[in-house]
């Protein structure tokens, strides 16, 4: 099972981190960017936290813009997909599982500030490939310095 990111993974994850800079600021939520990229490198959808709704998560926005099922695509998220949520009944982990996406790449594990998250573990247990890229986590912490220290 693959565990190391490819050069393409690093590129797309950096793009997801750039998307997170578009998030309207919030003292009670992380700023996250996400995009779904097909196996051939075509961007299928993107999203960022609070893009269309004050409670919207980045993965939720990106998945909502996805037309059809793309099991060979990858979702890139600057932050680990949530597995618990205060603002909505469906988590990003659940939405990813429902979407049929089989590959998830993220930079920073969600710290237990708002909820206790185990999205990466839930996705792996469901048979998804999950690749964490902690070398890019400092960039995500910087975007979220309004909540946590870089």
TrEMBL record:
Domain CMP/dCMP-type deaminase: 7-130
Coiled-coil spans in chain: none
GO molecular function: catalytic activity
InterPro entries in the record: CMP_dCMP_dom, Cytidine_deaminase-like
Protein name: dCMP deaminase
Organism of this sequence: Cryptosporangium phraense
Gene3D superfamilies per record: Cytidine Deaminase, domain 2 (3.40.140.10)
């Amino acid at each position: 099972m693959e565990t190391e990111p490819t050069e393409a993974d690093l590129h797309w994850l950096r793009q997801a981190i750039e998307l997170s800079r578009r998030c309207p600021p919030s003292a009670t939520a992380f700023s996250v960017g996400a995009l779904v990229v097909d196996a051939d490198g075509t961007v299928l959808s993107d999203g960022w936290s609070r893009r269309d709704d004050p409670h919207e998560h980045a993965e939720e926005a990106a998945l909502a813009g996805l037309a059809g099922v793309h099991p060979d695509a990858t979702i890139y998220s600057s932050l680990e997909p949530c597995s618990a949520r205060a603002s909505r009944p469906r988590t990003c982990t659940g939405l990813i599982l429902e979407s049929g996406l089989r590959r998830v790449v993220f930079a920073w594990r969600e710290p237990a500030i708002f909820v206790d998250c185990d999205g990466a573990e839930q996705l792996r247990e469901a048979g998804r490939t999950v690749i964490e890229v902690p070398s890019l986590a400092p960039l995500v912490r910087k975007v979220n310095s309004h909540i946590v220290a870089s």
